[in-house]
Structures are given as structure tokens and as C-alpha cells.
Amino acid sequence: MQRAMQKAIDFLFHPPLNAPPATLLMRLMAGSVFFWEGLLKLVYTNQGVGRFTKLGIPSRTSAPISSPAWRSAAASCSSRA
Hints:
The chain is mostly helical. It contains four helices and no strands.
């Protein structure tokens, strides 16, 4: 099991360099999709934060970290330590 895990880690951090030339094209095509989708999320709020607020998930600004509920939860966690 440990040998299989080590092989997986080696594959992720040291990928093989003898892939066919078409691999570069495939990676560029996939990367361009992620790039443009990320750019669209910045330009149109409807595709970024707006999508989640429509579902009812609050944005970070609507529930500040300094709220009383957060302070009491943090205090109870720090008192255990």
C-alpha cells in the first residue's frame, strides 16, 4: 500500500515528459476554457457570487467574521485548548 502511494505521489510531482505532442494542445485547450470562464466570472457577477446568492448562500460581506456568534464559537474552541 505504501509503495502504491509513493508511486502516485511521484507521478503527481514528477510527471512523465515523453507524452505525444497532442498532449500540449489538449492542455492548452482545457486551460483556455478555465481561463475564459474565470474571466467571465469577474466581468459578470451573475456567474460568480450572484449565482450563489440566488441560491440563498450568503456572501462573505453579509456575515462578518466579527459577529457575536463567531466570537462565542471561537471562545468555546479556545477554552478547550
